[in-house]
Amino acid sequence: MATDQEQSQYPFRINDQYVKDLSFENPNYLMKYSNDSDKQPEVGVGLENNVAKIDDEHYEVTLKVNAKSTIGDKSLFIVELSYAALITVAPNLEQDILEPILMVHCPFLMFPFIREIVASATSAGGFPPLRLEPIDFASLYMSKKKEMAENKGNAN
Fold this sequence. Notes:
By secondary structure, this protein is α+β, with helices and mostly antiparallel strands. It has 3 helices and 4 strands. A hairpin with a 2-residue loop joins strand 2 and strand 3.
């Protein structure tokens, strides 16, 4: 068990992780048994990262995942998951350290749990488990930062 001194060396701690919202829709399950069953379904996945400041040392990081499987214009399944973590950060943490913690490190640590929940939901819905591909949160963060800087430069 880490001592208080050892814990204070780390700039953040994940206090808790939890499902905020989970929805699984299975509107056309019986299509598996129709003439279209030989067609390969398409799967689209979207991800959104939101951070809410609770106070100077606590944040809630929420990852929202939307996955939809379709054949033609028919939905086979839709999964919507909001998964959150309560984070404690070191006091007076500088913004250039805080942002990557909230936008890269925490989502990276949360992702395996999200992946398992989505796989379990699709499997329980009668489909092969949807195994989300690993996500490079650092690249996403850098792209978003670059885009924001460009937008700020264009606004001037």
